[in-house]
Amino acid sequence: MPTPTRRTVLTGTAAAAATLLTLPGSANASASQAPRRTYRWRNAAIGGTGFVTGILFHPTTPGLAYARTDIGGAYRWDEDTARWTPLTDQLGWDDWNLLGVEALAVDPAHPDRLYLALGTYAQSWAGNGAVLRSEDRGATWRRTDLTVKLGANEDGRGTGERLLVDPRDSDTLWLGTRHDGLLKSTDRGATWAKDTSFPVTPAVTGQGVTLLLAVGRTVYAGWGDSDGTTGNLFRTTAGGTGWQPVPGQPTGTFAKVPVRAAHDPHTRALYVTYANAPGPNGQSDGSVHRLDTATGTWTDVTPVAPGGTDTFGYGGVAVTAHRPGTVVVSTNNRWSAGDTLYRSTDGGRTWVSLKDTAVLDVSETPYLRWGEAAPKFGWWIQAVAVAPYDCRNVLYGTGATIYGTRDLRRFAPRIRGLEETSVRQLISPPTGTAHLISANGDIGVLYHERLTASPARGMATDPVFGTATGLAQAAAKPSYVVRTGWGDHGNGAFSTDGGQTWAPFPNQPSLAKDAPGPIAVSADAGVLLWTFVHSDGTKYPAQRSADGGTTWAEVATYPKGATPLADPADPALFYTYDTDTGTLYASTDGGRTFAARATGLPSGDSQFQLAVAPGRSGDLWLSTKSNGLYRSTDGGRSFAEVGSARAAYTLGFGMAAPGAGYPAIYLVGSTDSSLTAVHRSDDQAASWIRINDDAHQWGWTGQAITGDPRLYGRVYLATNGRGIQYGEPA
What we know:
Elements: H1 12-18, E1 21-22, E2 39-43, E3 52-57, E4 65-69, E5 74-78, E6 83-86, E7 101-107, E8 110-118, E9 130-134, E10 141-145, E11 163-165, E12 173-176, E13 182-185, E14 193-194, E15 209-215, E16 218-223, E17 233-236, E18 243-245, E19 257-264, E20 269-275, E21 286-292, E22 297-300, E23 313-319, E24 327-332, E25 341-344, E26 352-353, E27 359-360, E28 383-387, E29 390-397, E30 402-405, E31 410-413, E32 423-427, E33 436-440, E34 444-448, E35 468-473, E36 481-485, E37 492-495, E38 503-504, E39 516-521, E40 528-533, E41 539-545, E42 553-554, E43 564-566, E44 574-578, E45 583-587, E46 595-596, E47 608-612, E48 620-624, E49 628-632, E50 640-642, E51 647-654, E52 664-670, E53 677-681, E54 689-690, E55 705-707, E56 715-718, E57 724-729
Parallel strand pairs: 27-31
Antiparallel strand pairs: 1-10, 2-57, 3-4, 4-5, 5-6, 7-8, 8-9, 9-10, 11-12, 12-13, 13-14, 15-16, 16-17, 17-18, 19-20, 20-21, 21-22, 23-24, 24-25, 25-26, 28-29, 29-30, 30-31, 32-33, 33-34, 35-36, 36-37, 37-38, 39-40, 40-41, 41-42, 43-44, 44-45, 45-46, 47-48, 48-49, 49-50, 51-52, 52-53, 53-54, ...
């Protein structure tokens, strides 16, 4: 992650005056003076792949729904096209921490109004949160920066919603925070102040307010920091001036955290799901309780009580407006029997498990099989929604997708347009069926036959990886590809058909199981060089194999933990850059030994990449976050600073422009301003053209970029939560 940028935070009337109108479709002419070439940007289709933490149907507008994710922004459902539209792609590099959506809220009385509470991490190194407010369903936004931190990618991110429009007054909003209590706004989110009447004291660590819900003219708030022996559900009926614990509420370790709540206006029943931890991990006990808000009577309506080896909590809960007594709840963290949705049509007296009769169709997103014969019904199910006017139209979020059904039996991903992959590496092969191979967090390696459909082969198997750590192709033999990553049945694999099918290395170093790192392969596919970095940060020397992974030997002269790079023309040449010392190392004997070449390069830079121009031996480019861009044309013996780039985060190459003799260069960085953007150069970095715009920024984009060697102008960009973006000249 990049280091957060410090922001000046305004409060009160100053914040309202400083609020800016963000127009996703417009360009900010002052943001960068670099010339722009119009590009069309789209997602390479995969289908979800991340944790969908909240789904919300608008209560009075059929077909209108929203979804939030932990690191990939917010989306609006378009019933006519059956697609999700991303709403936060305009957030740029400096606002990477706002791509996590802590909560969302709609106004029942004004269907076009939408509110988002943004902030991915509540840690000391993260920036403060912000609230976006829209009058046109997320097409345009006004923004207020907060003085507190939110935690959309921390424990408890599937609880909520923590943001609420007061049912008595559309100008009044409530925002529950993790460590700063309850906030209130009386001007539709333009300014915020702490509600000092909220009766509990926030903890430095903990969950704070987990949910806010309106029941008629009453507002309920869940508190996640109770030990279960005291009340953790509060309510106010006097405009927030007097909060009281709800009488008779459940106690016990299973009721430590009120996870979610839903209200049936016909039966006046409030349903609350509980767990002994906020989730999505760590839950082993839980329950579902119903409160008759007219009489104050609580009833335990738990479908199945956790116990023995079947441990879990309860997560999502939803009701439908037109069918009294119909309620759906989800289990969460149920790894033995598997998570399910329970549905009741009699107010929780009896329940049916929808998983037991479900037919799952993942043909549109084959990766959801995870290398197995049958897909999973889901896990990390804390977001559940039922359409207000169709009790059979059910959506639920998982750790990887959104499943939907319209008949309570057939389930399929309803995920088109929502892409949340954290992408690590990209290759665009010079030959073959696919123009793209990707290495990703959680879903390993994908072979993209088409960019408009989820890869037909799903995630690479034999072995299956969770998160990929390395991906490399032999420059002179592109049919040979290797990959590394975290897996239970092996950590390295090779392909002889360009990445379509895979086989594990015959053997692997012992370090590979606990510290798999990046890998390089020589131009002729004869040598593998694999490095190792433990999750605790411990670095190890590289290991070399000259027999396809049958035997491995440590390279003692290799700088520990550095990323290896093979020369694209000379099979005997390898390079690596030691950021600890600012030294470029090279090997001229096929990776057996390494020696220092250029010294005095930027050291300690947290963001860097060493790349080599395709087909050109020794033509090296070093991009650094804090010190710009450097180039060597003598194999790393010397480097010259490329003055046209002020900051360079990642760099790649693509097909040369017509009439040009050098590959097009693509850069994520800043050129003649402080704005971090996506650039292309057709003249060896003498000049740059900005090719993204203010509506397409996607937060943090510093992991990987590559052009297409077969199509001039096409570029593939890795994001941390918005999947793979690819751009083409319009």
